[in-house]
Amino acid sequence: MSKVALIFAHPRLEDSKIHKQLLQVLPKSPNLTFHDLYENYPDFVIDIDREKKILLDHDVIIWQHPVYWYSCPPLLKQWMDMVLEIGWAYGPGGNALEGKRVQSIVSTGGPEQAYQEGGNNRFPLEQYFLPFEQTARLCKMEYLPLFSIKGSHRISPEQLQEKKIEYRQCIESLLELNNTSYGK
Question: Coil, strand, or helix at residue 49?
């Protein structure tokens, strides 16, 4: 069984249609740590040592957030810039995260058809997350396939219910991963 840290970043959770619903179906497990960046750091002053300890104490890291301008909300970007330091997470001597797994779980306002060639956003959503995949690889982590919910502004109650089930199954499968190191 793996220990999973869900690093959550939503600057307007009170207005969220999707993420509030998803969080309600998180499995209750002593191996799952929910860590809300906006709740913990409303002033954007990140406790880097605390964040590093969270990462070290877990086998799987989830970056969960809505898509903001084809990326993540600003606090998660700042978290990455400050916590994933050279000499610790990557670069010479930077092996602290080696073997861990990481997955992005995101929502978009735009529908599925907007994220394809010829669509309004021109590219599949996965292409916008190549920097996240490269960040994971640079830190010697395994980047797992993107989990996304598209079209959150117009999602039907039935579609939302299906996505909540898929989300819970995704989290449960991450918890069930063995913690054998990636790449070994």
Answer: helix
- Entry pTM: 0.93
| Tokens (6 digits) for 69 | 């301008």
| Burial (Cβ within 10 Å: 0-12, 13-18, ≥19) of residue 174 | buried
Residues 6+ apart with CB under 8 A from 133: 143
Residue type for position 11 = P
E strand spans, the chain: 4-8, 32-36, 60-66, 101-107, 142-143, 147-149
**What is the distance between the alpha carbons of residues 99 and 61, in angstroms, rounded to a whole number?**
11
In angstroms, the CA 169 to CA 171 distance is 5
**Residue listed under structure tokens 């999602």:** 155
pLDDT higher than threshold 80 for residue 179: no
Are 62 and 174 in contact, with CB atoms under 8 Å apart?
A: yes
User: Rounded to an integer, what distance in angstroms lies between the CA atom of residue 81 and that of residue 155?
Assistant: 33
Here the tokens at position 145 are 């396939």
